[in-house]
Amino acid sequence: MLELRVTMSDGFELAVQVAGPADGPTLLLLAGQANNHHWWDLVRGGFEDRWRTVTIDQRGTGDSRGTVGEWSTRLFADDAAAVVEHLGGGPVAVYGTSMGGRVAQVLAAEHPELVGRLVLACTSPGGKHAQERDSVVRRELAHPDPAHRRATLRELFYTDAWPHRPEESLLFGDRTTTAAESRAHLRASGRHDAWDLLPRIAAPTLVLHGTDDRMVATANAPLLAERIPGAVLHLHEGGRHGFFEEFATNVTPRVRDFLE
User: Fold this and answer.
1) Are 216 and 241 in contact (CB under 8 A)?
2) pLDDT tens per residue, range 152-181
3) Mind listing the domains of the chain with CATH numbers?
């Protein structure tokens, strides 16, 4: 894997990882809230026979550290656009999951020349039109005991058949992220509202979601699919928030078929 440093217009340096064939079409993979590129470790290999995969340690994660500001999904989308331009420009395929899907929505709407095809998984349009997680989930995620929170995340992300301990997941956040960085990511996700942007997305779009996702309610998937012109919707039966990883043997071929 090739490790790069890309400097944004405000001087913030981002760590970028590139793998797969150098002459292959580019697939930008956007991770969830307060997570680094390891979010994709168990998924990106399913694309690297054909695609040049690109991941980004978003601000405040991995090796992308600097001054914490009022971050937003729009800023993260501009960061992603700058990375794509640095690597040769678009159009590229984009696969965004969870908050990465929120960033991908803004990227596709605000930088349409850079996005050729778009996959949005386990994500939400945000704002007043979105269906937020229920009060029970919010309370459990705010529990003061870290072990309790990890157990809650394990239940929210994976089915009972997932054969690992919560500590083994790559999806529960970058453990090196500071409290200030985590809060900045949470604010960015919470303030996301792409409702008015979604009709501007011109790239062919696939919307994916698990039917049992309580972290980001499944009801958000048809909202996105109905709002984005020509979008295709697929719900993975029984999938929870991490369905794209747990069921990658089924989900990745579907994504590949769409990207082809």
Assistant:
1) yes
2) 999 999 999 999 999 999 999 999 999 999
3) 2-259 (3.40.50.1820)
